[in-house]
Amino acid sequence: MVIDDEERLRKLLARILQLEGFEVFEAATAKDGLRRLEHDAIDVVLSDVKLPDINGIELTKTIKAAHPATEIIVLTAYGTINDGVTAIKNGAFDYITKGDDNEKIIPLVNKAMDKALLQRRVQELESKLNSKYSFDRIIGTSPAIAAAINLARRVAGTDTTVLILGETGTGKEVFAEAIHQASPRNAKQFVAINCSAFGKDLLESELFGHKAGSFTGAIKDKKGLFEEANGGTIFLDELGELDHDLQAKLLRVLESQQFIKIGDTKTTKVDVRILAATNRNLLDEVQKDNFRSDLFYRLSVFQITLPAIRERKKDIGLLAISFMHHFANKIGKQVTGFTPEFLHKLEAYNWPGNVRELKNIIERAVILCDGTELDASLLPYEFDAAIPNKSSGNLSAFDLSSVEKLHIQRVLNHTGGNRAETARLLNIGIATLYRKLKEYGLE
Length: 443
Description:
The protein is α/β, with parallel strands linked by helices. Helices cover about 50% and strands about 15% of the residues. The chain is built from 19 helices and 16 strands.
């Protein structure tokens, strides 16, 4: 956009820029230019200094405050060093004199355009990143998940420690990432660690770091994850697996934001928000003396319990559609929907693995699908077991066969359809299991 009250010069410069392939807008006053900026994505502004309503150098400051990705080149008939310095301080890309620097305008506009496009690209990537980890990423409209999202949104803007509870696969890390992204700490690191994935000594080193020579193999100083997350957020998944000694060390971090690295003699201070999650009942663990009561109450300042997918059946279809589109795009298949029977079986299933299991099932179905629609034949056989067999309508709740059939179904679901493991848990031979599966129509 060219802003200049001298119509002849404005139109001449606009025409030159148009011949170079640019789309050009014109404005005779600063007010008109600002109004145009509100409605059009303008990458570069060329503004005269002497405008009838606002000085062009002050206009630069106003534009950069409202549109930081837009680059401004200030044009003047009588340039001074002071004006040039002020323009640059106010955010101008450059400051040039009319007439003397005509040959510089096109190369300068090209450079300003390159910078503006890069700025917009960065903004787009940041926006996508925020969207990827925001609460909008959480799919579901059921009251149970809506209540959890509402609690998470309300605590996100604070520095309060949050304990996220729920079964395996309910999306605890997704919630933790969303809380971090909605917090004032979102410009800093979000660091996640699964506490059950490491032994005690290795986990202590991972969390708090160590000094060179503190143990065999410690050949150099190592930063722990608490230091890596300084200024940001650390997410401790499966917190119920922490050893008692590490629980004490974590309690100190919660209380003082300080800890001592392995092999060190002085404390390290950090500024970290702690989010934690577990699928265990920590109160039961406290009563069994497996978890420190003081740490439990320190962590339990704010609890969010995520519902199992069986408690939010109405969301299964929404989740399935989202996963279907994701994997269809990823694999390059034209899968656009699923049959009513497919959805019925998804909703009838018990989902011991929750959302994570549903995601895996949909990925498998998309891979196996040869058409444009997912149907029930693409589901594992345990989904047939989840729906009562119509041929066994003569069985009742008091019939021993009904009880046996239901029990076999539950164990099959628990083992993920592993028949050998099911037979072992039922304490029967594999041949006996196959006979009963056939007898009850569970094959």
